[in-house]
Amino acid sequence: MDQWDVAVIGAGPAGLTAACRAAVRGRKTLVLEKNRKPGVKILISGGGHCNLTHAADARGIVKAFRAQGRFLHSALAAFSPQQLVELMESEGVPMTVLPNGKILPANGRATDVLAALMRRVARRQVSSDAREGAHC
Ligand SMILES: Cc1cc2nc3c(=O)[nH]c(=O)nc-3n(C[C@H](O)[C@H](O)[C@H](O)COP(=O)(O)OP(=O)(O)OC[C@H]3O[C@@H](n4cnc5c(N)ncnc54)[C@H](O)[C@@H]3O)c2cc1C
Question: Whose CA is nearest to atom 34 of ligand 1?
Fold first, then answer.
């Protein structure tokens, strides 16, 4: 492990995003995933459509969680729903907003969301290790 500055446990959306961030900051980063493939939950989220955020500003998201939403303030200030949409669109995944406010890939494919995260990881040369040899 001496050759890594950062080891991220879990290649879900949080781990993949954190790994990219660490790599952008110049840290040699390793992602460890116990499943054979990364991002498995992304693929089942929203019934395969992955409604990955909601058409609301940070305040609106916090409010939806009532009193428990307070802990979201700092995370949403650092990375807002709008920034997530911009990130996906910058990776060539256009988003659409449903009448109920759900935001998902315009083509309804969760696979495109995972592919976008994996492209970012690959570009930053984040290394990976996963049980039975899956690679990010
Ligand atoms: C059926 C279903 C539908 C959903 N629909 C939506 C939706 O439409 N919209 C939405 O926003 N959210 C949805 N969610 C929730 C969404 O999946 C989670 O919010 C999201 O996956 C959380 O991301 P995460 O990176 O924090 O965790 P996870 O996606 O759970 O990723 C954690 C990763 O860590 C790995 N891991 C855990 N322990 C270890 C270990 N010891 N060593 C190595 N690897 C480890 C896991 O295998 C996993 O890959 C849904 C969830 C489910 C189950």
Answer: 10
Per-residue model confidence (pLDDT) at position 42: 96
**What is the extent of the structural domain holding 117?**
1-44+110-136
CA distances from 114 to 38, 108, 119 (A): 8, 12, 9
How many structural domains does the chain have? 2
Domain match, 56 and 99 both: yes
| Cβ of 45 less than 6 Å from ligand 1 | yes
* 79 and 104 in a common domain: yes
Same domain, 77 and 101: yes
Which residue, by CA, sits nearest to atom 21 of ligand 1? 41
> Ligand 1 centroid vs 15 CA: distance in angstroms?
10
CA–CA dist 67, 105 (Å, integer): 30
Residue count of the chain, please give it: 136
* DSSP class of 30: E
List pLDDT tens digits, range 82-101.
Answer: 999 999 999 999 999 999 99
